[in-house]
Amino acid sequence: MAKKLVIKVTAGADAPERCSQAFTVAAVAVASGVEVSLWLTGESSWFALPGRAAEFELPHAAPLPGLIDSIVAAGQITLCTQCAARREITEKDVIKGVRIAGAQVFVQEALADGTQALVY
Fold it and tell me: What 3-state DSSP class applies to 78?
């Protein structure tokens, strides 16, 4: 089994099932003791902002704010640098514990030994 899981979520409210699956898998992995790095890109970038996850609704899915809290508490959430810039999101705007980093960091994490990468 991979020692680390890197998950890139590209979907937000525009594709709610895919978005929810990414956050759910990340939260379950964290709860299972797996090191998790969740990357917010594209429309999921908005969930780096306070209060935005509370606006997300999907029947029969775990609430996004709780999933985010569990991932931040025991894993890492990263907002893509370019995605943040396109949305005029800065370090001072994001939820505590969310970092902003670019493709070089993503590639470095995804290619590390013992790592499994998933894209949603």
Answer: strand
